[in-house]
Structures are given as structure tokens and as C-alpha cells.
Design goal:
With 398 residues, this protein is α+β, with helices and mostly antiparallel strands. It has helices at 15-32, 36-41, 48-60, 79-89, 112-123, 238-274, 286-314, 319-347, 358-365, 376-390, 392-397; strands spanning 129-132, 148-151, 156-162, 173-182, 185-194, 200-204, 218-226, 231-232, 276-277, 280-281. It contains 11 helices and 10 strands. It binds flavin-adenine dinucleotide (FAD). Residues 131-134, 139-140, 164-166, 208, 216, 368, 371-375, 377-378, 381 line the site of flavin-adenine dinucleotide.
């Protein structure tokens, strides 16, 4: 009788996907993780030489470009392939993967000129872009934004203030959501505004909980003049592009949180096996092993859900269903990763409370994943609406 065959891995990766995963994992282990402590001690930044190293290695190993097409300078990955790469990026702290050349997905909807000017340099690692939607009085409900675009003879005049603009301190271009006033109507529209355009000022640049490479400043746009060619996605097309942006970003958060849980488990399990107190290994106490077990269950469940959503996004499924399921993956993985980080920090004891400890860094850094790209409460609203409108079975089993 022949020996029983090992069952295929539950995540059923193809050889191509497995190779990509291994390549991304090698990059994170060899390049990013060794720089984490240095970045943390420096408050988030790295010397130019290290930044150049990350960019060079990411490009050489073809790990840049997110979901962007090869034609535009990306790698043309499927959502599953992209998930696998983002998951590995999520195994590192201090957002060091932010140095990997990429650009927001809306830029792929630009005109040929916008693609040449903003998208391609971003994917070569020469520039950054920043996405500015949130305002003081419009956060969870972005339909309440007050930024306006008023028609002028030469194009548009933008007035408003945007909060929490990630990359706002380094971006070459801001993707700004504004209400274009046309014939008494107010049309949500995205504008590409060069950072050095007169009328843009930094109102505030507060410190945040994490130590990341770039800030999230508050930007004021006062009488900023742009031409018609600054519009991306058409007049009034802002909401559609934004929905696609949110769905992608939410799945990306699910992937990175899955990676964070993976790394937390790797490091904390090794520590719990090695560490002895009272004459025995701490993993032999259920007070230590059970939180590890709960974390493993969280990590495995979140990862399968995330991969399922990625596969759905690669199919011709209803985009609204993909949005709802991306919300579900974001909600579960971000909440689960926060639970895991807290448990792992506890298992490291006093060492877990130092910033040189990976669990401590994740414990701080993962907190924002329950807030940005829509809070956990907002994700619950989206999921509940989808249950009502699309039905329980499609939401659960698609
Ligand atoms: C570090 C960081 C980076 C960010 N980067 C960007 C960026 O690059 N671009 C950008 O545009 N924005 C960015 N944001 C903004 C982020 O998306 C918002 O903070 C988030 O959407 C929440 O909005 P808010 O902070 O105004 O909170 P609020 O909307 O004021 O919410 C406050 C609380 O009320 C709850 N709440 C609100 N409405 C409801 C409801 N209907 N039901 C139940 N609970 C509700 C929320 O869940 C939350 O707990 C960033 C934020 C942070 C912290």
C-alpha cells in the first residue's frame, strides 16, 4: 500500500503564486526586517542609503507597483498575487514597505498625460502621491465634504482643508476630492494637484501613535488654480473611483494584518518555547499557550477570508459584493490582528513593552487599521447593508 499523499495546502497556491510569495518573503526577511529597529529608534525615518536599498531591491525583485499593469510599470498581478505580496509586507513593522515604489489605483484611470506624469514616475520610485478626502467635519461620512471646485475661465479654483493626508509631506501630487459646482449642482470630483501649486499650505503636522516614514498632515487649499486637465475620472466621477480605491485599500489592510499575525505568531511562539521561568518553559502554561492558540485561529481564519475576497475580486463577481466582502475581510483581520498583538505583547512580558520588541510595535501600529479606510463601525454598516440588499448567502459564500 502506498503512503498517503499530503493533502494540498488549504490556500491552494499555484507554483507561480508560491514563487512570488517566496520572493516577497525573502525581500521582507532580508531587507525590511533588519531595518525595523533602526527606523523605530529614529522615529520612523531611514537614511537615504537605506531608502535607496529598499527601492532598488524591491524593483530588482519585481515586488513593486501594487495592482498596476505591466504597461504602466507595475507587474500586472491578480488580486491573489497582490494579496500574497502585501501579506509579506505586513510581516514587517514601521511601514518600511511604504518605500516600495507604488501609486494609488485611481491614477490608472487617468488620461495618457496623467499616467505619464504621475503614475509611471510613482511606479519607478521617483515620486509619491497622496489621497486627500477626509476633512474636519467629514470623516466616516465623506459625502459631507466641504471642499469646493469653482469654475473659472482657466479651469477650476479649489478651496478647502483636508485632514490626515498620508504622504502629504512628501507627495509630488495630491489626489483631492472636491465638490465641483456646476449649474447649481455639486458633483464629487477628484483633482490631481501638484504639491507646489500656489495656495497649498500645511496647517498642522501632528505626531501619530506609530513611527512611520511619512506624516499625515492637514493641508489647506486656498484659491488653488488648476486646469480642466487636473480632473481624473471625469466631472462627477469621484465617488465611483473612490469606492474602487476603498475596496482595494481595505483588502490590502486585510492582507497586511494577516502578515502581521503571521510574524507575531512566528516570533512569540519561538520566545514562548525558549523562555523558561520557574524551572519550565512558559509555553507549557496554558496562560501562555491558549492566547497563542487563539491567535493562530484568528490568523488562519482572517487569511482564508482575505484570500477568498481576493479570488472574488479576480472573478467577474458583482463589484458591490466585492466591496462588502472587502469590508468584512478588513473588519475581521484588523480586529483580529489587534487582539493578537495584545496577546503577544503580554507573552513577551516586560520585553514586550519595549519599542525594540516586534509585538510592541505591532500593538501600536495595528491600531490605525481599525480606523483608516473606514472605521470598524463603518465596515459593519457596509456589511449589514449588503446582507439586507444582496442576501445572506451571497455575502457568506460567494
Ligand atoms: C494615520 C491616519 C492616516 C490617514 N490617512 C488618510 C488619507 O491618506 N487620506 C484621507 O482622506 N484620510 C485619511 N485618514 C482619515 C481616516 O480615513 C478617518 O480618520 C476615518 O475615516 C474616520 O474618520 P474620523 O477620524 O473623522 O472619525 P469620525 O467619523 O468622527 O468617527 C468618530 C467615531 O464615531 C464612529 N462613527 C461615526 N459614524 C458612525 C456611524 N454611522 N455608526 C457608528 N459609529 C460611527 C466612528 O466609527 C468613530 O469611532 C487617516 C487617518 C489616520 C488616523
Amino acid at each position: 500500500m502506498s503512503a498517503p499523499q499530503a493533502p494540498p495546502a488549504a490556500d491552494s497556491l499555484t507554483p507561480v503564486q508560491r514563487e512570488l510569495q517566496d520572493r516577497a518573503r525573502g525581500f521582507v526577511d532580508e531587507i525590511l526586517i533588519p531595518l525595523e529597529e533602526q527606523a523605530e529608534r529614529a522615529g520612523g525615518g531611514l537614511p537615504d542609503a537605506d531608502v535607496a536599498l529598499i527601492r532598488r531591491e524591491a524593483l530588482a525583485r519585481r515586488l513593486h507597483g501594487g495592482l498596476h499593469s505591466a504597461e504602466h510599470g507595475g507587474n500586472g498581478w491578480t488580486h491573489v498575487e497582490w494579496f500574497l505580496v502585501e501579506e509579506q509586507f505586513g510581516r514587517s513593522t514601521n511601514a518600511l514597505s511604504w518605500y516600495v515604489p507604488t501609486a494609488y489605483n485611481v491614477l490608472a484611470h487617468g488620461s495618457d498625460e496623467q499616467i505619464e506624469r504621475y503614475l509611471k514616475p510613482g511606479l519607478r520610485g521617483e515620486t509619491h502621491d497622496a489621497y486627500a478626502v477626509t476633512e474636519e467635519l467629514a470623516g466616516s461620512d465623506p459625502s459631507g465634504i466641504a471642499t469646493t471646485a469653482t469654475k473659472t475661465d482657466a479651469g477650476w479654483r479649489i478651496d478647502g482643508e483636508k485632514w490626515f493626508v498620508t504622504y502629504g509631506d512628501v507627495a509630488a501630487v495630491y489626489i483631492v476630492m472636491a465638490n465641483a459646482r456646476v449649474d447649481g449642482a455639486s458633483l464629487p470630483t477628484l483633482f490631481l494637484i501638484d504639491r507646489d501649486t500656489p495656495g497649498i499650505s500645511v496647517v498642522d503636522d501632528p505626531p501619530f501613535t506609530h513611527n512611520y516614514p511619512h506624516g499625515h498632515p492637514t493641508l489647506r487649499f486656498s484659491g488653488v488654480e488648476v486646469g480642466d486637465e487636473a480632473i481624473i475620472g471625469g466631472l462627477g466621477g469621484g465617488d465611483d473611483l473612490q469606492r474602487a480605491w476603498f475596496a482595494e485599500e481595505r483588502l490590502g489592510i486585510a492582507a497586511r494584518c494577516s502578515g502581521a499575525m503571521w510574524r507575531l505568531l512566528e516570533e512569540t511562539t519561538a520566545w514562548a518555547i525558549e523562555r523558561e521561568q520557574g524551572g519550565g518553559r512558559i509555553i507549557d502554561h496554558q496562560g501562555v499557550s491558549f492566547p497563542l492558540a487563539d491567535s493562530a485561529a484568528d490568523a488562519a481564519a482572517g487569511r482564508l477570508l482575505g484570500l477568498e475576497v481576493a479570488r472574488l475580486a479576480d472573478s467577474d463577481a458583482d463589484v458591490k459584493l466585492v466591496h462588502a466582502k472587502a469590508s468584512m475581510a478588513k473588519l475581521f483581520c484588523s480586529e483580529a490582528a489587534n487582539r493578537c498583538a495584545d496577546r503577544c505583547l503580554q507573552i513577551f512580558g516586560g520585553r514586550g513593552y519595549t519599542r525594540v520588541n516586534v509585538a510592541e510595535r505591532f500593538w501600536r501600529e495595528l491600531r490605525v487599521d481599525r480606523i483608516w479606510e473606514g472605521t470598524s463601525e463603518v465596515q459593519r454598516i457596509i456589511i449589514a447593508r449588503s446582507l439586507e440588499r444582496r442576501g445572506v448567502e451571497p455575502v457568506l459564500h460567494s
